[in-house]
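Lay summary. Proteins are chains of building blocks that fold into shapes, and those shapes determine what they do. In this project we predict the shape from the chain. Here is one chain we studied, written as its sequence of building blocks.
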Amino acid sequence: MTAKTNAKTNFPDSPGAEAQKPSKNSLWRDAYRRIKRDKIAVVCFFIIAFYFLLALSIELGLIYASVGPGPDAYAPPSWEHWFGTDIFGRDVLAKAVQGTRTAILIGFVASFISIP
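And here is the predicted shape, written in a compact code that computers can read:
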């Protein structure tokens, strides 16, 4: 006694055969659909995108990164220095963004190293 097979897929017809058929969606569309259902993943995506844009902003020159000492040490937060300045007069926001850029770079390098 032989099992009946589907002519298109060459899989045996069974009650669960409908669930075993491959999806017509692409891999990216399927991943997007699954992530969209998970609200925590969506929030995490936007947080990561924010950090990425913040790190990119210093490369594009949207945030000025003072390298040397400035005239106003320990300045409180203002419109010019949103997080204030440190002991050397450098902008704390610019230092934090530079740290974000370094952290993202290390994350990418570690990811590429781990790929076999």
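What the prediction tells us: The chain has a mean pLDDT of 81.
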